[in-house]
Every structure is written in structure tokens, then in C-alpha cells.
Design a protein that fits this description.
It is a multi-pass membrane protein. The structure is a single chain. The protein has 643 residues and is α/β, with parallel strands linked by helices. It has two domains: 222 residues, no CATH class; 369 residues, Alkaline Phosphatase, subunit A, CATH 3.40.720. It has 24 helices and 16 strands. β6 and β7 form a beta hairpin. 44% of the residues are buried.
């Protein structure tokens, strides 16, 4: 008897079909479980990142669940990145070993940065990692136990990541080809759509619905509202500086130019020494603290006004950029560092100007020349030499930094060896924080601060001793200048308030350990003003200069030296007649208070400020249309567009 094939084969096929369906259901179930785990991982990563960056678990939870915050959007975006990265790597959950450290470690660095500098971490900060490494010995000396703990955690984290990577490669479940394809087909387009939302200059209804609100004019609020990951992503394009609306050759040609007067050629042009004193500030401003004796009698006696610093506690190079160029950080993307990002070729500066008048132009700083990219920047600015730690004599130290006295003496020695008129620019180092106890063998300034803790009292005593020695160095320099035959102009100013931490809060000077970035004018002056002395050995102190932006120093220096210039005493002088300071958040008028939020889109801009901005953009990023008319000494240096 021949059996019917259908009778014996059909049951086998049915069993196979049922098994296949079961396998598919099982596969779908496992795929759903894996995606669910990735979603949970994304939630935990965002929560951890925000907790670290904010230093507050309650605020981190609120960011995740509040209906007016983009926490769910951040989770969704990170979930898509996890899924797509898993597809590329081929195994489930392996993306966590890449993306979680990339989220958590920068958040930790951001939290530490905010403790000292008030600002969160920006993408551009990655450009000066060498500076951070160079300052590690100082930070370790100031907080050794914390440094050891952090170092131990970092080593343990690296060991764990290496172990988990090899463990994952062997044990984590591999993804099937359909699973990989599905994740990529869904994840990549959605991630691409998100990237299109990152142009904060363009309105996006979808971004609004997701409660993602870029606040580039107020980065502190930007990070608080959008969370660390989204705000950091918004700042990635900051190096792409767009031209101001209306900029072009016609706009430059339309800028009126006064008729500059040539300096009277007496054959005796004054020497100029311009010193930016690290963290120089008046600690007697601390109302609930008494210091005895006065740590800065020379500076107080010869005060010309104050510098309205755009920074706090750090970012020295940004203040230096303004003082040397006459340009303003207010016209650049928030969080940017011109020395690192934008100075890539010849840029007008006081060095270029004075060299065009036959001066010798030298720069001095008793630290390594790569710090803040100074070696390249000074060359771009037109200095003919830069004396740094590498090529200066070994100097006496105060703590681990070169003393102001030794540095000042070196500047004086260089001046005595220079026959021609000179423009010297120097940056001191002794006042750099942190202000650890026992930096000095003896602190000569007594601190009476009933509300200060012992640690804060010691920190303030160290800082005040440094101020006293900076003041004594200035007196030494002025006494030397008085004996010289040629007139000597001395300009000294502080770059920013010192990072004194709890001294500010315990004394009641500020509500936080760091300064406010946007506040009423009286608060901003309280938290951003540093001392300024503009003095001539023949003409004496230049009084009542006001509370001015560092950019306006170039106007006063050129004017006091007896010169006229189309930009420095022309355009910049015209701006200065109307404004004392140009801050990112407000224009400080000479007579009518401050103009807040002047830089926001849609605000009508004062034509003189608009022209100032055009000239800066033209010389830094544009085609140099203005060089011949406004920077004649710069025109011959330009072989192509400024960049």
C-alpha cells in the first residue's frame, strides 16, 4: 500500500509553522524587551546626567517629569541614539558603553566648572584641555583628598569600561539583520529630524511643542531649562559665526570716517607698559569684612576708574582679547573664546598700531606660551616677540607661580635694554587661584570677618596678601618710571574677580559663589568691576574714566600716547562717548543707565554700535573691506581675507 504523502507531511509542516510563529512571537517579545530596556537606560542616563550637572536630584527629577521642560524629548533622542548605535555595533546594549560615559563625564566636568567659573561646559572648552591638565597640580594642592577620590573613581571607571566592553562582546545578545535594519530605518531619520531643530536661529513649531527653547543669550538658563545634553548640543555650532545682518562692502563704505590728526612729531613718543593683573580686585569691597592695613594703597591713590569685566573667576583670555584689539566679546557667540577659535591670521591690535609708529612691541607672561594659544595669538596681533616661561629667566615664586615683583623687574629690565619707544603688554600670574592656605610664609593683611569660616578666612588672607604684593610691584614700577627721561605710560587692570568661593556667600557680598551673568546694572558692577589705573610719568593719573569695558582701554592708551586713529580714537572713541560698557546683556550708557537685551533679535541697534560690530566682523571673519580706511597699518599685513 502506498501511503498518501499529504497524510504524513502535513502534520510536520503544521508543527514547523507553529514553531516558526512561536519563534517570531518570541523574537518580537525579546525585541520589545530590549527596546524597553533601552528606554529605561535612556531615562536613567538623562536623570544621572542632570543630577550631576545640577547637583540636585529634585531638580533633575523635575526636569524629567515637568510638562514645561523637554526632559521626555531628551530621553527620546537618547533612546534613538542607543538603538541606532546598537545596530551599528551589532549587539544589544553595547551602545551604553559608549554613550553613557559621553553623557556623564562631561556633565561632571560641567558641574566642576560651574563651581569656579559660573558657566557650564561648552563644546569650545574641549579646545583647551591642555590648560586644564596644566592646572591640575594647583587644584590637587588645594583639595588633595577630593583629587585622590576623583582620580580613584576615574581609574575604576576606566577599568570597568574595558572589562564591560570585552564582556559585552562575548555575552551581550547579537541583533538579527532585520532588527538592525529596523532600528536604522526608524532611528536615523528621526535623529536627522532632531538635528534639523538645532539651528536655534530658525523658528521651529516642533521644537516649541517639545518645550525645547534655545536661550543662547542666557546660557545659565539655557542649561537649566533644556538640560545639559540638549544645551550642550545647541552650543556645538557656536564656532560658526554668521555675518551681522546688512554686512557687506556697501555697509562698510557707508560708515562715516572722521579726519584723523597726526601726532605732533616731537621726536619723543611715550613708552607704554600695559599690565593685566591676574584676578586683581579690591577685597575691601567685602562689606562685612575688615582688612588691615589697606592691601592696595597705591592702586587706590592712583585709581582711574574700573574695568567692567565680561568674565568672572577665569576666562582671562577673553578680557585680554578686548583690551588688545578694541573689539568686543559681546559680538561673538556666547561661550566662545576668540583666542582659541577665531584668531587664525592677522588681527588688528595695539601692537600692530604702535609698531606702525616705529615702536618695539613685546608681550610678557611668566607661564608656558601655548597657554590660551598665546604664542600664535600674539604673532597674529603683531607682537614681534613673546617672552614666556620658556625663554624668560627663572623667577622667584610665590606659591607655585612667578611673583609679581620678579615679573615686574623683568619687564623693567627689558625696557632699560630697549632704545626705541616701546609698547609692552604683560599678564601677571601671582594672583591666580585657588588661594590655598600657607602659600605665603607670612600673611601681612589681618582679616576680621565674623561671618567667615576658618577656611574662607585663610583663603581671603592668601588672596589679600597677593593683592598687597601686586600693589607694591606697581609702586616699584611707577617709582622707576618717574626717573626715566622719556615719558612712560603705565596701565594696569584686573581681568576679573577672583574665584574666592564661599568668601562671597559667607560675607554676604553675593548670593552665590559665582557672579551673575545678567542682572540690574548695580549688581553687575558689584560682581564684575575690577581696578583700573591709567598713569603717565609726565601727566599723572587719568581720573574719572568710569566703569569701562576692556575694549575701551585701547582708546585711552592711543589717546594718552598722543595719537589719533580712524578706529581706536575715531569709531571706538565715538562709541565710548555714548557708552561706558558693552556687555552681552546690556549697553551701559554714560548718562541714561543701561539698555537691557540690546542684542536680542528684532531689537533696533544704535547705528554707532552697528558700525562697530560691522568693523569687528569685517576684520576678524570678513573680507577686510575696512582695512585701508580704518586700519591702515593692518592693510599691508593682509594677504587675503581675515580669518
Amino acid at each position: 500500500m502506498v501511503s498518501d504523502p499529504a497524510i504524513s507531511i502535513t502534520p510536520d509542516r503544521a508543527v514547523a509553522s507553529v514553531a516558526a510563529k512561536a519563534n517570531r512571537r518570541n523574537g518580537y517579545a525579546w525585541a520589545a524587551v530590549r527596546l524597553g530596556n533601552l528606554l529605561l537606560l535612556a531615562v536613567l542616563t538623562v536623570l544621572t546626567t542632570e543630577w550631576i550637572a545640577r547637583g540636585n536630584l529634585h531638580e533633575a527629577l523635575r526636569f524629567l517629569i515637568a510638562t514645561d521642560r523637554p526632559g521626555p524629548a531628551a530621553v527620546g533622542i537618547l533612546f534613538l541614539l542607543f538603538a541606532a548605535t546598537d545596530a551599528l555595533l551589532g549587539r544589544a546594549y553595547q551602545s551604553a558603553l559608549v554613550l553613557v560615559p559621553l553623557a556623564v563625564i562631561p556633565a561632571f566636568i560641567s558641574a566642576q566648572k560651574q563651581l569656579f567659573l559660573s558657566d557650564p561646559l561648552y563644546p569650545s572648552d574641549m579646545l583647551f584641555g591642555r590648560q586644564i591638565l596644566q592646572l591640575l597640580p594647583v587644584m590637587v594642592a588645594a583639595r588633595p583628598y577630593l583629587a585622590v577620590a576623583i582620580g580613584g573613581c576615574l581609574v575604576a571607571t576606566l577599568v570597568a569600561l574595558v572589562y564591560l566592553w570585552f564582556f559585552a562582546w562575548r555575552r551581550f545578545p547579537s541583533l538579527s539583520r532585520p532588527a538592525k535594519l529596523f532600528r536604522l530605518l526608524v532611528g536615523v531619520p528621526l535623529i536627522g529630524s532632531f538635528l534639523s531643530l538645532m539651528d536655534y536661529a530658525e523658528y521651529s513649531p516642533l521644537r516649541d511643542r517639545l518645550n525645547i527653547i534655545p536661550m543662547m543669550w542666557d546660557q545659565r538658563e539655557n542649561y537649566l531649562h533644556n538640560g545639559f545634553l540638549l544645551a550642550f548640543a545647541f552650543n556645538l555650532p557656536m564656532a560658526n559665526v554668521t555675518a551681522p545682518e546688512g554686512y557687506g562692502v556697501q555697509a562698510i563704505e557707508a560708515i562715516p570716517q572722521g579726519a584723523p590728526l597726526a601726532a605732533a612729531d616731537t621726536g619723543e613718543h611715550p613708552d607704554v607698559i600695559m599690565l593685566m593683573s591676574e584676578s586683581l580686585w579690591d577685597p575691601t569691597r567685602l562689606g562685612n569684612v575688615r582688612l588691615s592695613p589697606d592691601p592696595m594703597p597705591t592702586i587706590r591713590k592712583n585709581a582711574s576708574g574700573n574695568i567692567f569685566s565680561p568674565e568672572f573667576g577665569g576666562m582671562t583670555a577673553n578680557v585680554e582679547f578686548e583690551a588688545l584689539t578694541g573689539f568686543s566679546n559681546a559680538f561673538l557667540p556666547y561661550g566662545s573664546i576668540p583666542y582659541q577659535q577665531y584668531v587664525r591670521g592677522p588681527v588688528p591690535s595695539l601692537a600692530t598700531f604702535f609698531r606702525s609708529k616705529g615702536y618695539v612691541a613685546k608681550s610678557f607672561h611668566p607661564f608656558q606660551s601655548w597657554f590660551w594659544n598665546r604664542a600664535n595669538v600674539y604673532e597674529s596681533f603683531g607682537f614681534e616677540s613673546f617672552l614666556s616661561e620658556e625663554n624668560m629667566p627663572v623667577m622667584d615664586k610665590r606659591g607655585i607661580f612667578a611673583s609679581d615683583e620678579a615679573f615686574t623687574k623683568e619687564v623693567m629690565r627689558a625696557a632699560d635694554r630697549t632704545q626705541k619707544p616701546f609698547f609692552f603688554f604683560g599678564v601677571t600670574l601671582q594672583g591666580h587661584g585657588p588661594y590655598e592656605p600657607n602659600r605665603y610664609a607670612k600673611n601681612t593683611i589681618a582679616i576680621d570677618g565674623p561671618t567667615l569660616s576658618p577656611a574662607s578666612t585663610q583663603s581671603l588672607a592668601t588672596y589679600a596678601q597677593g593683592v598687597r604684593e601686586a600693589d607694591q610691584s606697581l609702586k616699584m614700577l611707577m617709582d622707576w618710571a618717574k626717573k626715566r627721561r622719556r615719558e612712560t605710560i603705565i596701565v594696569i587692570f584686573g581681568d576679573h574677580l577672583p574665584p574666592l568661593g564661599t568668601v562671597y556667600t559667607e560675607s554676604g557680598y553675593m548670593p552665590d559663589q559665582v557672579a551673575t551673568r545678567s542682572a540690574p546694572l548695580d549688581v553687575m558692577k558689584r560682581e564684575h568691576e575690577t581696578p583700573l589705573v591709567v598713569w603717565s610719568s609726565k601727566k599723572g593719573v587719568q581720573k574719572d574714566l568710569g566703569s569701562i569695558s576692556p575694549a575701551f582701554l585701547s582708546y585711552h592708551v592711543v589717546k594718552l600716547a598722543g595719537y589719533e586713529h580712524p578706529f581706536y580714537t575715531g569709531i571706538l572713541g565715538a562709541v565710548h562717548e555714548r557708552y561706558e560698557a558693552i556687555d552681552r546683556h546690556q549697553l551701559v550708557q554714560r548718562t541714561a543707565g543701561a539698555v537691557p537685551d540690546w542684542s536680542k533679535a528684532g531689537k533696533k541697534l544704535d547705528p554707532i554700535v552697528r558700525d562697530y560690530r560691522y568693523l569687528q566682523h569685517d576684520m576678524m571673519f570678513g573680507d577686510g573691506f575696512s582695512a585701508e580706511r580704518f586700519f591702515p597699518e593692518q592693510a599691508e599685513r593682509l594677504s587675503g581675507p581675515a580669518s
